Amino acid sequence: MLQLISDRTSASVAERDDTTPQLYFQRCRWCGTAMYQRLLCTGCGSTDLEAERSAGEGVLCVHRNVTAGADRWPVRMAEGFVVRCRVLGTRDAVRPGVRVRLAGEAEAGAEPVVEPCDIPEPPPWSY
C-alpha cells in the first residue's frame, strides 16, 4: 500500500485501504491557484501551499513532445492543474479532448496512471 507523503511543498498519489487511487495536489492559500508538485505558487510566488485531494477526473491535453513516450500525456484535471500522466488505453481511445479518470500508480513517486472514462466503440468496418 502506498503512503501519502505530503507536506507544504510536495504532493503525491496515495491509496486507501480499499485500493481506490487518490491524487493529491497543492492549492495556494493566498491566491487559490491549483498546481502539482511545486515549491512556489505559479500564480503569486507564495510558499503557503496546502495539499488537497483531487476528484481524479480530467481531460487529455495536446501532446507536443512525442519523444517522451506515446503513453505519457498532459492531463488538465478538474481542479485546474496540469499533470503529466501515463495513459492506459488503445491508440484509438487516447487523443486530445478525451475525458479520463485516475486508475492508479505503479509505485510511489511515479507518474499517475489514468484511463479513458468513455471508451469509443470501434467502427463497424475493418481494413
From TrEMBL:
<feature type="domain" description="ChsH2 rubredoxin-like zinc ribbon">
    <location>
        <begin position="21"/>
        <end position="50"/>
    </location>
</feature>
<dbReference type="Pfam" id="PF12172">
    <property type="entry name" value="zf-ChsH2"/>
</dbReference>
<dbReference type="InterPro" id="IPR022002">
    <property type="entry name" value="ChsH2_Znr"/>
</dbReference>
<dbReference type="InterPro" id="IPR012340">
    <property type="entry name" value="NA-bd_OB-fold"/>
</dbReference>
<protein>
    <submittedName>
        <fullName>Zn-ribbon domain-containing OB-fold protein</fullName>
    </submittedName>
</protein>
